Amino acid sequence: MSVQGAELFAWWAASISGGSVFLTLVSIYLYASGRTSQKESKGTTMKTVILVKNFIFVWVLLGLLVFYIVSVNIGSAAVFAAGNIFVEIILVIYLMKNRPEKSEQARA
Amino acid sequence: MPQQLTNYLFMGTVVVHGNGQGVVVATGKNTELGSISKSLVRSHPETEFQKGIKKYGTMLLTLTLALTIGIFTLNFAVGHYWVDSLLFSLAIAVGLVPELMPAIVTISLAQGASRMAKVKVVVKRLVSIEDFGNMDVLCTDKTGTLTEGKIVLKDYSSLSEDKDPRILSYSLLCNNAIVEEKIVGNPMDVAVWEYASENGERESVKAYTKVDEIPFDYQRRMMSVVVKKDEEFLLISKGAPESISTKCKYVEVEGRIEPIDKVLKSINTKFSKLSQLGYRVLAIAYRRVKTQKFYSAEDEKDLTLHGFLVFTDPPKKDSHQAVTRLNEMGVDVKILTGDNELVARKICDELKVPVKKVVCGSELMEMSWTEIKEAVEQTTIFARITPEQKLDIIKALKANKHVVGYMGDGVNDAPALYEADVGISVDTAVDVSKEAADIVLLDKDLHVLADGMNEGRKIFGNTQKYILMGTSSNFGNMFSAAVASVFLDFLPMEAMQILFMNLLYDVSNMTLPTDNVDEEYIKRPKRWDIGFVRKYTLFFGPFSSLYDFLTYGIMLFIFGASTPQLKSLFQSGWFVESFWTEVLVIFVIRTRRIPFFKSRPGKWLTVLTLSCVAFGTIVPFTVLGGFLGFTALPPEFWVLLVLMVATYLLLVDAGKVFFYKICKIQGSE
User: Fold this and answer.
1) Do B520 and A8 touch (CB under 8 A)?
2) In this predicted complex, what is the ipTM?
3) Is the pTM of the predicted complex or chain greater than 0.80?
4) Which residues of B touch A38 (CB under 8 A)?
């Protein structure tokens, strides 16, 4: 099988999207099984805000996917580089905000 | 069948009473006991770690087989030459197999054993190191671990509190210590002889001749001897007061012989008081017997209780800290002792060791298997237990899914040492106990044990890192190679290139056993949790694949390497990117700390990993690179690569927040 040009791009975009969707589904599965084992979902209604907050990682991931597909489609190394730096800043902020407290770290 | 040899006496048999004549037909390893001992050596029970490795191997084999067959079929179906497809799928299979695992495990264990030797822990069986670190219940005796282990005869007295020298003489006669230059034997028997030597009372027994002996056993909890003096035969018994008192009809008080019933209450009170003070007490009783050919346990009746021997074994000063330290490390300490409940409790009180519940051997005997399994969970002290009951306790704890360590130094500890996940003995123990043990401590000290456990946990931690690395980044890379092979006109990486990358990756992992392990990781015991490994692979594996796909996009659409003529550019780009991500991710995966650089990696791991990355980076520019089919990469690629790998590492770190903190997946601990 020989795929070229637009078809090749479609294959590629489908592969990377497939990978991201798979990772999103795994995240949902892990989140659900984690909650079940903690029995936190029992009797409480998970607020949308908390759900959105907890899934920030997934939103970043999906955002990255869109950015990567667009930048590769444009074929510009500069756009790709700039976008990466932007995402890295977001990820650093996310990590700093989720840095465990000292007591939490000791308990881990 | 040994059972059918009814006229044979087997090695190790204890003759309860009687005598006989026989011919020795076999000795040592040629006996039935010898053959049992050989079979024990062959079939040492599998450790928790070995079971875990086996499960992991099965999981990996399933994955590798499925992926290899799938890749070959797909490649062949889309029109690739079948030999290329076969080689490619086999290379992927090789890439997936953590072939360095045996080396990593062996190096980890050997290095760990060497480090443990420095903290006075000698490892006899390397595979037990991980279980040693991860045990969550430690069963130990009291003598020598919680106490100084030096039993001293503090005092002896009759019921009227006077120091009748006959009590000491009788206890010297009813005694199995071997008295030569050095006194050796049962610690209590030795203590009696040492006391007599110090006080010049050894000569008092010279007038007596030993006629017969009824040996000690755990059912009677007493021993007796028959001695002769001036044509008078005397049966002297020594043992646990509660056992001796049941065999007594009389009691000697101030030279008078009285029925025991009158003073039984005061005897029990005296015994309880001494026990509550933490003293170990033995009772001495006697009766005159007629001359007869043999004496048996049936002759231990109608005795006259004469007095008590009071022994002391002071608690170790640092035992409290040691037990607290073990508790903080997630190890529940259980005391298995032949002493009575009061003595054991007193020692624990003195050492401030919290006691949840005390169960005596007699109570244990009445329990069903289900009740024993429940009892072992809540009990801290098992008092007055037999060697068989020690075995039952360990089996029950193991059945409750605990990793059980057993520490003992006596002959009767050997079965328990063998049955436990980790048998721990001490340098001064009897040979059979050291033979049955996995670990030998050069000091019978719980601090030494705790130091050794820390090393065990570090080894387990570093082995886990390799496994998590292999199943996540490695698996991700191979998976993306498989997908790309379907839609590209050429293979994303040649078989030889994959094998070369695999070799470099393995070299970079060689120093993993020397890596630092986070303090918080070794705080609690860990268990092999294949479910955790599976979830980890499922979640972290796709990260690597995503960035591989991204590299494909860059190589195909930014650098235009989409034709077979430019395949070496594509392959070089992907080789460098997948190697960087595969190797550098160790710095993120090796710790649960956020951000990852808060945990300092080992010096050698850092040096070797970065050296391998540097080597992998320059390979496409070298003759070797040309031989492998690589080509030089444009400067823009390197800028994009650095940015892309930085994003990848940060994303994996963010993934850790989601995995550990939000989903609360910790593995079985």
Assistant:
1) no
2) 0.87
3) no
4) 664
